[in-house]
Amino acid sequence: MAKLRIKQVRSLIGYERDQRRTVRALGLRRIRDSVIHEDSPTIMGMLHKVRHLVEVEPASEEEQPRKRRSSNASA
């Protein structure tokens, strides 16, 4: 399957709660944050809902999804 790079380009302030939650569910936290997802009908539906807040482009094959630290990681 193809991979997509999704980048948040607009602030979520003033937008509906369901749109803010959709952007958060995509894994985006702040402006200029980007994530990589597989191209699937579920992701495409989410992107359609918040298309005015994000930019989408094809990701190169060697790009891997970024791993985030969990908040309960031991030091």
Describe the fold and architecture.
The protein has 75 residues and is of the alpha+beta class. It contains two helices and three strands. A three-stranded antiparallel sheet has the order 2-1-3, with no helix packed on it. The longest helix has 9 residues. It is globular. The model has no long low-confidence stretch (mean pLDDT 89).
Query: What is the CA-based Rg, rounded?
Result: 13 Å
Q: DSSP strand (E) fraction? A: 15-25%
Strand order of the largest sheet: 2-1-3
Tell me which oligomeric state these chains represent. single chain
Q: Which descriptor suits the 3D outline?
A: globular
Helix/strand-derived category reads: alpha+beta
Uncertain runs are none
The averaged pLDDT comes out at 89
* Largest sheet data: 3 strands, antiparallel
User: What is the H/E string?
Assistant: EHEHE
**What's the tally of helices?**
2
Termini separation (Å)?
37 Å
List the helices and strands and how they pair.
Elements: E1 3-8, H1 17-25, E2 34-38, H2 41-49, E3 54-58
Antiparallel strand pairs: 1-2, 1-3
In short:
The chain is an alpha+beta fold. The chain is built from 2 helices and 3 strands, in the order βαβαβ. It has helices at residues 17-25, 41-49, and strands spanning 3-8, 34-38, 54-58.
